[in-house]
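queue> pop job 88
queue> type: inverse folding (structure -> sequence)
queue> payload:
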């Protein structure tokens, strides 16, 4: 089987990491060709460009590791739809495009992959596809995310957040909860990325001063040490299709505070503290427990590493994914 892959998703993102882990575990009897095109992912005519490339690429199957299906495609195709975040937090233009373009093209897919049961249920309800055409295959933590010895040591204890600044990441409530729940003024809240005016204004109004620090872009090879050095990871998103940072933190032996909504309970289970992401007081209480109770942190570390070992494995994820691709190509 020759698979043509939309490689525009490759890179240091969750989708890029997912694609890399699956392709690294390709069965020897299959071959992979990359699209090798520079089209922007947000280009609205991308589906038609993808379809034309797939039709002349000599492949048996087209696979998009992101959400974009091909149009007028004459070979079978599989699309991984990680979530429906654009329907919840996108613009009116995003919602229209999903409803009128993406949904219609998914009806022609041989299979649709996703990464959690929460996303699968949402996709089924939105798309109207038959239940057996949407398959949930959980992600995993790469081997680099483990309880190793290398730790980021900035000279102060810190609560870590890893991710972007989109509104559904709920950083305003996290920062307010940190101000209320972390009474030890030596503890800092460390955010990936660079400072922006919106967050700096909030930090100033709360009188947090230097207690909130910005780590800049964290290189992928440095990320495990940053997880290991943290007192805990705080990930109180309003919406996630899966949520790799909590899983990676647990694999590194770092306790997790996460939201009790969407897919995050599937990932964290009873191995972390789950809180209502809309309740600043509840988030603050969770942060207080994690920073003040060493026994609780130790227990969550034990549960987290056990959960990662038992439930999340890239070999299983890749094997399941390649079987879906094989069946799609033969359908």
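queue> result:
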């Amino acid at each position: 089987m020759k698979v043509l892959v939309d490689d525009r998703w490759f890179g240091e993102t969750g989708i890029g990491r997912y694609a890399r882990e699956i392709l690294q575990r390709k069965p020897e009897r299959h071959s992979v060709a990359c699209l090798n095109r520079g089209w922007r992912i947000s280009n609205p005519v991308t589906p038609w460009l993808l379809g034309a490339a797939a039709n002349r690429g000599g492949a048996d199957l087209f696979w998009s590791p992101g959400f974009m299906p091909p149009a007028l495609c004459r070979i079978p195709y599989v699309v991984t739809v990680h979530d429906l975040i654009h329907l919840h937090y996108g613009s009116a233009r995003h919602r229209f495009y999903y409803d009128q373009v993406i949904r219609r093209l998914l009806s022609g897919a041989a299979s649709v992959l996703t990464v959690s049961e929460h996303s699968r249920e949402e996709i089924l309800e939105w798309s109207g596809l038959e239940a057996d055409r949407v398959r949930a295959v959980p992600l995993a933590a790469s081997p680099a995310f483990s309880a190793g010895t290398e730790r980021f040591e900035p000279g102060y204890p810190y609560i870590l957040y890893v991710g972007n600044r989109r509104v559904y990441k709920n950083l305003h409530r996290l920062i307010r909860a940190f101000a209320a729940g972390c009474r030890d003024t030596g503890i800092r809240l460390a955010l990936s990325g660079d400072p922006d005016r919106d967050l700096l204004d909030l930090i100033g109004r709360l009188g947090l001063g230097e207690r909130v620090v910005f780590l800049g872009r964290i290189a992928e090879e440095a990320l495990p040490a940053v997880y290991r050095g943290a007192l805990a990871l705080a990930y109180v998103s309003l919406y996630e299709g899966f949520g790799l940072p909590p899983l990676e933190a647990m694999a590194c032996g770092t306790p997790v505070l996460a939201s009790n909504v969407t897919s995050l309970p599937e990932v964290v289970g009873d191995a972390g503290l789950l809180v209502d992401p809309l309740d600043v007081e509840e988030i603050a209480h969770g942060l207080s427990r994690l920073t003040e109770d060493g026994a609780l942190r130790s227990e969550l570390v034990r549960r987290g590493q056990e959960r990662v070992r038992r439930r999340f494995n890239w070999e299983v994820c890749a094997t399941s994914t390649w079987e879906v691709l094989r069946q799609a190509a033969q359908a």
